[in-house]
Write a structure and sequence with these properties.
Layout (H helix, E strand, L loop, with lengths): L11 E6 L4 E6 L5 E7 L6 E5 L1 E6 L2 E7 L5 E7 L4 E10 L2 E13 L1
Antiparallel strand pairs: 1-2, 1-9, 2-3, 3-4, 5-6, 6-7, 7-8, 8-9
Length: about 110
């Protein structure tokens, strides 16, 4: 049986994080890839990444990826409320570091 097409497939969102970071996230038509582009302080940064996706509830999706830099990102995207819970990790000076944030989505 095929998995349902994610509700974000083929869409682009402005993702604004509670720490002031913002991104333009564009999802492939089949929901298997993301092109993120940094805005503001992160302007000029971008990457096209393969996604791991699972349905959590109606129109709520768990989405995760690993970037070339080694940063891992995990989102719980609630497309009903246009909110995101995001957890990202990276290698710090003394080991792996992680942060939990919230954010909002605005269709672009």
């Amino acid at each position: 049986m095929n998995a349902p097409l994610p509700g974000f497939a083929g869409r682009t969102y402005l993702f604004e994080v509670d720490n002031g970071a913002s991104f333009r996230n564009s999802y492939s038509a089949d929901g298997t890839r993301l092109r993120w582009e940094g805005l503001g302080e992160s302007a000029g940064q971008y990457e096209d990444v393969p996604l791991h996706v699972a349905a959590v509830a109606p129109n709520v999706w768990f989405v995760s990826w690993t970037e070339r830099s080694g940063i891992t990102v995990s989102h719980v995207m609630d497309l009903n409320a246009l909110t995101v819970k995001v957890f990202w990790t990276w290698e710090g000076e003394t080991g792996r570091v992680g942060e939990l944030h919230t954010g909002t989505l605005t269709p672009a």
